[in-house]
Inverse folding.
C-alpha cells in the first residue's frame, strides 16, 4: 500500500479492442469488461464494493467484466462514477466494428409467404 502522502497512481491505460471475441460475446463488451476489471483492481476494490458504490447488483459487475452484459447508459454512468473515471474512458476507441452482427428477424408475414412459396 502506498504511503498516505504519496501521489495517487494514474489509472491504467484502457486496453485496445479485442481482436476476436469469445463465442456469444462482442469485442465491445469484452473491451468494456476488461477496462472495468483493470480500473476496479487498480482501486483495490471488490466487485461487491463497486456494485454498492454504483447502486447495482453485485452479479452485474462480474457479468460486465466477463463481457457477458451490455450495459444501459444509466448503468454505464453509475459504474464509471463508482470507478472514479469518466464514462468516455470505458468506451474510448470502441467502434461499430466491435459490435456483433445484427441478425435480421423474419416477420410472421415473411414466414407465411416463405411457407406458401415452398408448397
Amino acid at each position: 500500500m502506498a504511503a498516505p502522502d504519496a501521489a495517487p497512481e494514474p489509472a491504467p491505460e484502457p486496453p485496445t479492442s479485442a481482436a476476436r471475441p469469445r463465442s456469444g460475446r462482442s469485442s465491445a463488451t469484452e473491451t468494456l469488461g476488461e477496462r472495468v476489471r483493470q480500473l476496479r483492481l487498480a482501486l483495490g476494490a471488490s466487485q461487491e464494493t463497486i456494485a454498492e458504490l454504483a447502486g447495482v447488483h453485485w452479479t452485474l459487475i462480474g457479468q460486465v467484466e466477463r463481457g457477458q452484459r451490455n450495459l444501459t447508459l444509466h448503468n454505464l454512468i453509475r459504474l464509471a462514477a463508482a470507478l472514479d473515471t469518466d464514462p468516455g474512458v470505458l468506451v474510448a476507441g470502441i467502434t461499430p466494428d466491435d459490435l456483433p452482427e445484427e441478425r435480421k428477424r423474419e416477420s410472421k408475414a415473411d414466414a407465411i409467404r416463405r411457407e406458401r412459396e415452398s408448397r
Observations:
- Residues 27-100 form a domain with the 434 Repressor (Amino-terminal Domain) fold (CATH 1.10.260.40).
- The helical segments are 27-43, 47-54, 58-65, 73-82, 87-91, 108-117.
- The two ends are 73 Å apart (CA to CA).
- Residues 80 and 87 are 5 Å apart (CA to CA).
